[in-house]
Amino acid sequence: MAETNPDKAPEVIFLPWEKRDRLDSLIERSAFPSSISKGEYLAIKMHFGERGGDGHVKPEFIRPFIRAAKSKKAKPFLTDTCTIYHGPRNNAVEHLMVAAEHGFSLNRLQIPVIIADGLLGDEHREIPIPGKHFSKVKIATGITNADRMLVISHFKGHVLTGFGGAIKNIGMGCGSRKGKFEMHSSAAPKVTSQKCVGCGMCIPTCAQSALKLSDGKIELDKKLCAGCGECIIACHTAALSITWNEETKNVQERIVEYALGAVKDIPAYYFNFVCHITPNCDCTGIREKPIAADVGILASEDPVAIDAASLELVVQNSGDVFKKAHPELDCSLQLEYAKKIGLGSRKYKLVEL
Questions:
Q1: Which helix (H) or strand (E) segment is 306 a member of?
Q2: How far apart are CA 308 and CA 136, in angstroms?
Q3: How far is CA 273 from each of CA 126, 152, 301, rounded to the nearest angstrom?
Q4: What is the pTM of this model?
Q5: Which domains does the chain have, with CATH numbers?
Q6: Tell me, what's the pLDDT at 246?
């Protein structure tokens, strides 16, 4: 666990969920408004939700951030990147349609929505980093061309990393489609044929056509697999699963290295919405039941500290729900590796409003 009151630790401001109507006060108390300059392009990085899902941060919570940005005469825009799995968000046209369906549109919020890596997810800039896995990472040009980034994350579980928060939002979320392939490339699922009932529900989730039925059982071509994990979520018999090993450790480290590249040349501030905490990420496109009680909204200049605080508050309130949901994963690895490569601090000072 992180140290909650160390000296010289980054501040994490905490607004309990029952006080969420005071979000404006949290924003005002944070360093975010004072960091904004007139005329600068502010990328508000978030997840617009998948069609059929409902866990994403809702538009009504985004309005106060937009007001704060406009009060400083900045030029804010909402943004996310294309996915690598089959679905409407793997291209900008359909991604924008899903965003609009969920209330994220120029008409609704009075700021534009821009898919940061372009029409087909192939627009990126290579950012050099001192990583173990990468010397350069492919960050979407809509992010790299901005002057500043506001990162708004829904804190929840994840099939490959245990939990997903600010680090995953800027790591996986700011990479182009080629970047996402690089991050996922070593995480092919394990196939247990005895558990397969031959339903084929996993097959349409695979963008790489790596899955097929043979004699009523699923077969996986590991050479084609991108390791995105969508088939694991679709499988209801555990015939497809992630086994904790060196490969999934590498996925967490790769995401952290992409996060480092995403904020290398652009200042960022972070807000985590620790509510409607589901076992899987908002990409699933299904309405999952929460596995933990709502906690609140957190704010910090440090992406590692805010994720460490979010995780600890969830565990304090509801137990180690992410370990129960994904027992094969050690979600602390992303925090420790992020600290190691200089992305941020696992230590933090929690200040409750």
A1: helix 303-318
A2: 26
A3: 30, 8, 15
A4: 0.86
A5: 11-184+244-352 (3.40.50.11440), 190-241 (3.30.70.20)
A6: 52
